[in-house]
C-alpha cells in the first residue's frame, strides 16, 4: 500500500450515542469483517455534528444522506486543514430515506458551508458528486473522489 495514503475510520465518540448503525468499537461486539489493522487512525464523532452535517447536505446540496454520511463529512473537516493540500476521498455510507420519519431532517439547523478552491478539471466532478460539506469554523474543506484540493483556507 502507498505510504502516502492514510485510511481513517470514523465511529461514535461515546458508547451511548444516537448514531444508529455505527458502533463505538471499544464497547461493542466487533464484527468479524472489521480489521483494526487497516485504519491508520480512528476518529470519534459526536452525535450532533453528524446530524447537523446530514441535514446541511440535504438542504444545500440536495443529497439525502444519513447521519453516517454526516459523520464521514465531519471527519473530512477534521482531516483537511492539517494536510494543507491533497486529495480526500470519502464514502457517504448511508442514504437518508430510512430516516425520513425519525425527525433527522426536521430541525432547522443552519450551518454556513463553503466549497474549497479546487483545480478547474475537478470542479464539475465536485458538482456532480456534491460531496462537500464542512461547517465554517474558520475552515473550508472538500471531499470528492478524484478532486484535487489546491489549498485549505483558514480565512472566513
Compile the SSE list and pairings.
Elements: E1 8-12, E2 41-45, H1 47-61, H2 67-83, E3 117-118, H3 120-129, E4 149-151
Parallel strand pairs: 1-2
Antiparallel strand pairs: 3-4
Helix pairs in contact: 1-2
State the main characteristics:
3 helices, two-stranded antiparallel sheet
Describe the structure.
There is one protein chain. The protein is an alpha+beta fold and 156 residues long. 27% of the residues lie in helices and 10% in strands. A two-stranded parallel sheet has the order 1-2. A two-stranded antiparallel sheet has the order 3-4. α1 packs across α2 (67-83). The radius of gyration is 15 Å and the shape is globular. The chain starts with 7 loop residues before the first strand and ends in a 5-residue tail after the last strand.
- Provide the CATH architecture: 3-Layer(aba) Sandwich
The helix content is 25-40%
Number of domains: 1
List the helices and strands in order.
EEHHEHE
CATH topology: Rossmann fold
Structural class: alpha+beta
CATH class: Alpha Beta
Amino acid at each position: 500500500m502507498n505510504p502516502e495514503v492514510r485510511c481513517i475510520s470514523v465511529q461514535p465518540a461515546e458508547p451511548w450515542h444516537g448514531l444508529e448503525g455505527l458502533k463505538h468499537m471499544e464497547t461493542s461486539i466487533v464484527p468479524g469483517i472489521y480489521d483494526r489493522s487497516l485504519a491508520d487512525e480512528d476518529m470519534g464523532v459526536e452525535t450532533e455534528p453528524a446530524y447537523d452535517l446530514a441535514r446541511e447536505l440535504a438542504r444545500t446540496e440536495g443529497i439525502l444522506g444519513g447521519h453516517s454520511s454526516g459523520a464521514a463529512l465531519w471527519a473530512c473537516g477534521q482531516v483537511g486543514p492539517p494536510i494543507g493540500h491533497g486529495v480526500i476521498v470519502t464514502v457517504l455510507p448511508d442514504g437518508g430515506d430510512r430516516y425520513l420519519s425519525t425527525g433527522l431532517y426536521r430541525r432547522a439547523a443552519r450551518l454556513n458551508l463553503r466549497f474549497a478552491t479546487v483545480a478547474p478539471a475537478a470542479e464539475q466532478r465536485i458538482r456532480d458528486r456534491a460531496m462537500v460539506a464542512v461547517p465554517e469554523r474558520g475552515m473550508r474543506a472538500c471531499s470528492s473522489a478524484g478532486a484535487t484540493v489546491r489549498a485549505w483556507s483558514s480565512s472566513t
